[in-house]
Structure formats: structure tokens, C-alpha cells
Specification:
about 35% helix, binds adenosine-5'-triphosphate, elongated, binds magnesium ion, about 850 residues
Length: about 850
């Protein structure tokens, strides 16, 4: 179901023809619109009848007639010859055989007639008028026998929509509205009701976004008071800003939380890729539901709870202000100085924004507040139903639950279950039945040994699971906003390792610890320590030096493997080596970085750089570089107090800020942050998990970015960094669970073969990644492999082929990389002034431009 976008201004009279909920109210509205007059009674040939009449039918017709039962909703008034009649109430007309019974809405008979002609009975239809037992009636609609038998037509006046206002009755005069079964009954009340029941915003202005109306079933369930249906219209102030996919998203969320997509289910997962504006979609929903509703316009919700990572609490406040200003809605954000008690005491606030950590601390108070809507931002963390945060949130009685996540969620079927079960408890049955019905057959589908039958079953179950959950999960990819974004120029820079790095690297690979790893027994293997040491070395040898020194000083006897790894390494460092005054030239990447910063500063003095590392110690080095060159910088890492985070981000994004660099620890604050103040992003190191890097890269190339975005990924040529990169982009990395922010190297299983590969240094190669691509070029000129078809290998998803949509934020595949422009550092015709400056230290480049058309 789509929201109705109305682009033309229709007449007010039409506004109510589509809004039928409670028949009696609809009728009253029609009357008010059309101004009924008794002059038209009898129009259409169904003149006023008085019973009994001559019986002229044949025997066959009689039998047929006697078995005929029809039900109509009608309005009635006392018979009179007055010109201006006043309808007095709703009723149900039962036509059985040749007789009529008229019942009021409490089921009492209020009129009877028998002996009508077959032809006359046949003609009865909407808009006709009749005379029964001294009452004049007008047929308003047909009632199904089901609605009559269930008695629903009495409670709800369940007739079909009344005649459209452009019908023949449009000239009727209405002097007094009939009595509705629902209050109010007095003239004044009804008039008030008409006024109160108007949509909050004009549904007929061009580009208005009108949300779908609930169907009859929903009305029966949720409109017990028979309030009139009122159009729910998104505030034009907001609509004005919405992207098309956001309008669709709001309609989707509305239908979910209203229980219009699935009976008795009020949860949703909005899993749009990063930067698609999930926040704005939720804000629009909250603002709408807080002021409006389909039944009599009554607001659907009063209070909303938003739970979000600490670093985003203030971002929510900011976004509310950005889209709604500060007057429309009052937001309370919980922090050290603003406790939940304050929210409870005040009647002022309707939205509470709290971090997951604070939620746990304030759970008892929160449980006592009645929240009508719960939004869990970056909600993939609820994928484990055993963790405290999940159990805490489950314990809240709020039924309308929304999870927001930019991370794909179908990769692990058990985690998927936890998320689904959180938003719509029980929708997939119990965990054990879910396993039997869905998980096992779907997992079987991927087994090479699966029989045809098993494959078919697995596919069917996957399809069914997708269909079922697709009712309340929405995921759109970055493509939908690409056209609003500036170009993105992504470069992978393979940086030549420094001489000291090569020497240390070789020594590490020759260590006892590494040799032990390669002997085959992976139990208790120190491979993670070895990998860690190599990665540190790639960032800068001084980091390795610090670790060695640290180990030397520690008196504990555990960690012998680490000691054996470091054996003899100190001798490789100069005797007077001081890690505090590290030298740039000792790290290939650092040299490239420092040149890159210099050229950006020089050529784009007004642009800013986001510099990302996964390690705090590395960030310290990068910070020292900033100091060394006098670059103003801001820093956000795990140590940054949550209360200060948004301020730091805002400050950096402000055009008045003098900061040139934003130092970001991706693990601490990658998710959800908007760093559009920066248009260059440098990933200094690489993570095993592509999702972490993608998260970081998405911070700058997002809505609101004004400049072309440059993303640089630095890798040390021939080293473990290249291997990790290959793993990220190879099929192996796509085998499901790796594309998940919480997965780290500890979760990765390595075979001895893989370790052998990891622990090899390729000293003579310009780029082992390029070597692996089996590309025929020699890196002499800009090369793009066009011989391959465009390869759209999507992120592997356990739900099978049904989910495999094109996905712009998926980890790159090897075949795609081959299609990137690539060339060696010796290539002479570099046109990119940034790359030109660093090429001395870069052995190979890969480059790709997205949105080149809009390149400015
Ligand atoms: N319609 C719009 N017009 C202009 N800017 C927009 C629009 N929608 C969202 N934005 C801006 O885009 C940025 C990204 O939005 P938001 O933070 O909501 O993304 P998200 O979907 O939550 O991404 P993530 O998964 O990274 O958290 C914000 O700065 C937001 O203000
Ligand atoms: Mg977000």
C-alpha cells in the first residue's frame, strides 16, 4: 500500500468520499456536503411505497423471491410532505421475500411492510427512497450477509461506501443531520465534530503526503467508538524535505506500527543502508503519530522512547531540531545532568532519547513510563536475545517497536530471529520451531551434499521467510540517494614499506612464534598475536617497539609466545631509538599520509579530512603528525565522553571551525556519525571486517555533503594488510557472518594454508592484489578491464537468492576491483594532483569514481 500523493487541488466535497469508517458518520458527512432535499425523494423510479400492494408475480417468481434476503443500510425520517425533511437516524433494512423490516441500530424493529412487487424489490439500490411503516427511508449502502449475521452492521453500520458526492443526490438539502449511533447527538456537538475531525494538514495541496487509510478490518478492531476516518497527512513543513525513498519509508513505518501490514503486529525493521536518513523518517513518523491518527484525528501516540548508542543521543536532538525546529516537539535527552526523573515529572516532553548504557541504569524508572513507540537506533546490537540490553528492552510493554540498522541483518539466521522476535514477538513461532521450519532447511540448502529435494525445500522456506519478514523489514540501498550526492573518488594506495619495516617484518616472520603457528596445531596457536604485531609494524615500527618494551617490563610469566615473537627484534632498531619522536620515513604509510595531508591543505585549503584508525595508539601517532605540521584537529575515540561527542562533531562540521582534521577511532564512533564537514577520508589501517571500513567510509559521503568526496585507503605493499584486503574483497569474506560489525579477527578461523599466506612477505611485488587479479596489464597506464561483464556479486545472505539485490555498500569483489582504474606508481601520466604528490611512495593505485556525471 502506498501513501497517496495528491498533486492536484480537489474540491473539499471530494475529501470525504474516500474516508469510510463508520457508516453513520459517513452518511452524515455526505448529507452535510450534499445538502439533501426531499424534492429528490423518489428519484430513480423507486417511488415512495405504501404497503400492501397488489401481488402480480407468477408462482416461480414467488418462490425465487421468498428465498431472497438482502440487507441495506439506510437513513430514515417520519413521512411528511414538508419540503425540507430532517433525517432522524440510521437503520438497517432487511428485505426478505416481498417484505421489509426496518431495524434501528440497537436491533429494534421500527417499521415493517409486506406484499411488495418483485420488480420493485429488484430495483432497490443505493440512493433509492422508500416508504415503510410511515417512515421515509433512503438506501445508503448494501450490507453483506456476513456483516449482518455477525451483527457488525449494527455496531459499526458496516454498509458499503455511500454514494459518491457527485451522484444524483448532490443537490439534496440537509437541514438537520441525522442522529449518529456514535455520539455526539446534538446539532452543536456534531458541528463541532465536523470541525474537529478535519485533517490536520490539507490533504489536497500539491505534493501532500497522505498516509494510507486503514481497511475495514482494522477499523472494526481499532475504531470501537466509531469515530470518523480522517486523513493522516504528513506535515508539509517536513514533506518539503523528504526524498522519495523517505516518503515510502514513512508510509511503510506507519503501516507497520499501526498494525496495517499484519494483524496484531506493530513492529518494523528499517534497515536502509547507511546515510539514507533513517532518523528523518522516524522523526516524521513520531511527529505525525503524536498529532494525528486515522480515527477522528485522535493522536496515535503520546510518548516515544528512542534508544541509541551514546555518541548519537545528541545527534537525535539535532536532527529533531533540524527538521521540526524547536517549537513543534520537545525532546528530552538523558545524560549525567539530565536524569530520567526530570522527564517523568515534566509534562512538557514527549520524546525521551537515551543511550543503551543509560537505559540499563535507569530501567526501573523507564519501565514505569508508558511509552507508545520504541525506536532502537543501530538496533543490530539486539541480535542476541540473551544480552542485558535486549532483555531490558523486551521487558518494556510498548508494542510499537522499530529497529533501525544500516547493517545487513540476514546473515545469521539465529540473530535474524532475535531481531524479528524483538519487533514482532512470536511472529516466527518459538525459536525451536523456527529452527526446524526455517533455519535447518535453509542452512541445508547451502550444503554441497544437499539433495535436490532438500534444495527445493530450503529454497521454499527461504522464500517464505523472506515473504513473511518482508512485510515489516525495509532495506533500500545507497543507490536511491546517489543522485543527490556529489562524486566519490575512492583510491586504494599500496604504500611501499620503509627499510626498517621490511627488516623487522622479515625478522618477525622468522620468529619461533610464527614458525609454531605454521606447524599445523592451531589450538593455542599464537597466530593472533603474530598478526597483531605485523599490523602494528605496518602502521609504524614505533608501535611494535612499544609492545616489545612493554613485554620486557612485564614480570608475568604468561605470554611466552609473545616474548618468543619479539626475540632479537630490539637489535634491529637503532640503539638510540626513541618511539616518542618517531620518524615518518620509518613507515611507508605515514610518509604517504603526511604528503597527502600537505597536498590537501595546499590545494584545498577550505576542505577537511577525516582520518580513521582502529587503534588508539595509532591515533596518537596521527595526532602527533597534526601537531608537528600545525594542523588544527578534533579527536573522537572510545575515551571521549559521550556528552561531548556531538559537540565535537558539530564543531567539525561547522563552516566556522578551523579544524582541518578529524581523528576518528572507527570502533568507538563509526556508526551513525555524520561527518559531512569533511570531504576527504583516509583509512589509515584495515580491519578484517569490511563492515567496519564501510561504516567509516559512509561518514562523509552522505546527504548534505557539498564537495566531491575523496576516500583513500592506505595499505602497505606486499604485507599482511594486502592479504586482509584481499580477504575482505574475496568470496571468502562474503561467506556471511563477516559482514557484521561485531565480528573481529577472533571470530575468524584460519587454515594452516591461509596462515602461511598471511605470514609471507612479497618484497618484490608492486601489488600482490593486482598480481592475483590475473590482469594482463603491466600497470603502465590507466588500466580498466572492460573485458569482464560488470559483476554484481552481492553480499552473501543466508536467505538465498531472494535477497540478492544490487548493493552499493557491499564489500567489493575481486572482479569489480579489476574494473577499477589501476596503475603502478611509476606511471607517468597521473592527472590527479593529489596522487601525483605521493606517487614516489606508492607502488600501485586502484581508483574508482562514483557519480562522475555530477563531477564539479
Ligand atoms: N531529505 C534529506 N535532505 C537533506 N539531508 C538529509 C535528508 N535526509 C537525511 N539527511 C541528512 O543525511 C544525513 C544522514 O542521515 P541519517 O543520520 O539519518 O542516516 P542513517 O540512515 O541513520 O545512517 P546510519 O546508518 O549511518 O546511521 C544527516 O545529516 C541527515 O540530516
Ligand atoms: Mg543513523
Amino acid at each position: 500500500m502506498k501513501g497517496r500523493h495528491r498533486d492536484s487541488h480537489l474540491t473539499a466535497g471530494n475529501s470525504f468520499t474516500s474516508t469510510h469508517c463508520c457508516l453513520s458518520y459517513c452518511i452524515s458527512e455526505h448529507r452535510s456536503m450534499r445538502e439533501l432535499s426531499l424534492e429528490t425523494l423518489g428519484v430513480g423510479g423507486a417511488s415512495v411505497h405504501s404497503a400492501p400492494k397488489e401481488i402480480t408475480e407468477s408462482k416461480g417468481q414467488e418462490e425465487e423471491l421468498d428465498s431472497l434476503v438482502k440487507y441495506f443500510s439506510v437513513v430514515w425520517c417520519k413521512a411528511s410532505k414538508k419540503k425540507h425533511k430532517k433525517w432522524e437516524g440510521d437503520a438497517v433494512l432487511i428485505v426478505k421475500g416481498r417484505s421489509f423490516i426496518l431495524k434501528d441500530l440497537e436491533g429494534k424493529d421500527i417499521g415493517k411492510g409486506i406484499g411488495y412487487k418483485f420488480k420493485e424489490l429488484e430495483k432497490i439500490e443505493e440512493g433509492h427512497t422508500l416508504m415503510i411503516g410511515g417512515k421515509e427511508i433512503e438506501i445508503i449502502g448494501i450490507i453483506s450477509s456476513e456483516d449482518f449475521n455477525s451483527g457488525r452492521c449494527f455496531q459499526f453500520g458496516g454498509g458499503s461506501p455511500a454514494v459518491p458526492c457527485s451522484s444524483q443526490t448532490s443537490s439534496k438539502c440537509f437541514s438537520k443531520p441525522f442522529r449518529s449511533i456514535c455520539k455526539p447527538s446534538s446539532k452543536e456537538n456534531i458541528r463541532d465534530a465536523f470541525q474537529n475531525y478535519k485533517p490536520r494538514h490539507d490533504p489536497y495541496t500539491p505534493n501532500s503526503l497522505v498516509l494510507p487509510q486503514p481497511d475495514k478490518n482494522h477499523q472494526r478492531m481499532f475504531n470501537k467508538n466509531c469515530l470518523p476516518l480522517v486523513d493522516v497527512v504528513i506535515d508539509p513543513h517536513v514533506v518539503h524535505h523528504l526524498r522519495p525513498h523517505q516518503k515510502e519509508g514513512i508510509v511503510f513505518l506507519y503501516e507497520c506500527v499501526m498494525g496495517m501490514r499484519m494483524n496484531g503486529r506493530y513492529g518494523a525493521i528499517l534497515a536502509d543502508e547507511m546515510g539514507l536518513g533513517k532518523t528523518l523518517q522516524c522523526i516524521s513518523l513520531i511527529w505525525t503519530l503524536q498529532c494525528q491518527g486515522p480515527y477522528g484525528g485522535k493522536p496515535v501516540i503520546k510518548k516515544t522512547l528512542i534508544v541509541t548508542p551514546g555518541s548519537l543521543v545528541n545527534n537525535w536532538r539535532k536532527e529533531f531540531k533540524k527538521w521540526l525546529g524547536s517549537e513543534r516537539i520537545k525532546i528530552f535527552t538523558v545524560d549525567q545532568d539530565h536524569k530520567v526523573e526530570e522527564f517523568i515529572k515534566s509534562v512538557f516532553y514527549s520524546v525521551l532519547v537515551i543511550s543503551y548504557e543509560m537505559l540499563l541504569r535507569s530501567l526501573d524508572q523507564i519501565k514505569n513510563i508508558k511509552f507508545d513507540l520504541l525506536i532502537c537506533d543501530e538496533g543490530h546490537r539486539l541480535k542476541n536475545s540473551a544480552i542485558k540490553t535486549t532483555t531490558a528492552l523486551i521487558s518494556l510493554s510498548c508494542e510499537k517497536r522499530i529497529i533501525l540498522t544500516g547493517t545487513p541483518i540476514q546473515n545469521d539466521l539465529q540473530e535474524f530471529f532475535a531481531l524479528i522476535d524483538f519487533v514482532n514477538p512470536g511472529v516466527l513461532g518459538s525459536l525451536s520451531s523456527y529452527r526446524k521450519i526455517y533455519e535447518e532447511p535453509i542452512i541445508m540448502l547451502r550444503e554441497p551434499s544437499a539433495s535436490e529435494e532438500e534444495k527445493e525445500l530450503g529454497e521454499r522456506r527461504a522464500a517464505e521467510l523472506t515473504r513473511l519478514t518482508g512485510l515489516f523489514i525495509l532495506r533500500r540501498t545507497q543507490e536511491v540517494i546517489n543522485k543527490y550526492l556529489p562524486p566519490k573518488i575512492e583510491s586504494v594506495l599500496f604504500c611501499r614499506p620503509a627499510a626498517l619495516q621490511i627488516e623487522l617484518y622479515k625478522k618477525l616472520l622468522n620468529s619461533q612464534a610464527v614458525r609454531f603457528c605454521l606447524q599445523g596445531s592451531l589450538e593455542n596457536s599464537p597466530h593472533l598475536i603474530c598478526i597483531g604485531a605485523l599490523k602494528k609494524l605496518c602502521n609504524h615500527p614505533c608501535l611494535l617497539f612499544n609492545s616489545i618494551k612493554g613485554k620486557e617490563c612485564s614480570s608475568t610469566c604468561d605470554g611466552n609466545e609473545e616474548k618468543s615473537l619479539y626475540e632479537g627484534l630490539l637489535n634491529v632498531f637503532p640503539a638510540d631509538y626513541n618511539p616518542l619522536v618517531f620518524i615518518e620515513k620509518e613507515s611507508g604509510k605515514l610518509q604517504v599520509l603526511s604528503k597527502l595531508l600537505a597536498v590537501i591543505h595546499e590545494l584545498r585549503p577550505t576542505e577537511k579530512v577525516v582520518l580513521v584508525s582502529h587503534y588508539t595508539q595509532t591515533l596518537n601517532i596521527l595526532q602527533d603528525i597534526c601537531k608537528r605540521y600545525g594542523y588544527a584537529y578534533a579527536r573522537l575515540d572510545g575515551q571521549t565522553p559521550i556528552t561531548q561527542r556531538q559537540q565535537i562533531v558539530d564543531n567539525f562540521n561547522s563552516k566556522y571551525s578551523s579544524d582541518f582534521i578529524f581523528l576518528l577511532s572507527s570502533k568507538a564512533g563509526g556508526v551513525g556519525l555524520n561527518l559531512i564537514g569533511g570531504s576527504h577520508l583516509i583509512l589509515y589501517d584495515i580491519d578484517w571486517n569490511p563492515a567496519t571500513d564501510i561504516q567509516a567510509m559512509s561518514r562523509v559521503w552522505r546527504d548534505g555533503q557539498k564537495h566531491a568526496v575523496h576516500i583513500y585507503r592506505l595499505l602497505t605493499t606486499g604485507t599482511i594488510e594486502e592479504k586482509i584486503y584481499q580477504r575482505q574483497i574475496s568470496k571468502q569474506a562474503l561467506s556471511g557472518a563477516v559482514v557484521d560489525l561485531t565480528k573481529t579477527s577472533e571470530h575468524i578461523q584460519f587454515s594452516v594454508e591461509e596462515l602461511k599466506n598471511l605470514f609471507t612477505l612479497h618484497e618484490s611485488s608492486h601489488c600482490i592484489t593486482h598480481d592475483l587479479l590475473a590482469c594482463e596489464c603491466t600497470g603502465e597506464k590507466d588500466h580498466t578491464d572492460d573485458s569482464l561483464e560488470k559483476f554484481a556479486l552481492s553480499r552473501h545472505c543466508q536467505l538465498g537468492p531472494h535477497q540478492q539485490k544490487c548493493n552499493s555498500l557491499k564489500p567489493l569483489s575481486m572482479s569489480q576491483l579489476k574494473q577499477w582504474k589501476h596503475f603502478s606508481g611509476d606511471h607517468l601520466n597521473l592527472t590527479d594532483p593529489f596522487l601525483e604528490r605521493i606517487r614516489e611512495n606508492v607502488s600501485f593505485f586502484f581508483q574508482n569514481i562514483t557519480n562522475q556525471a555530477s563531477c564539479t
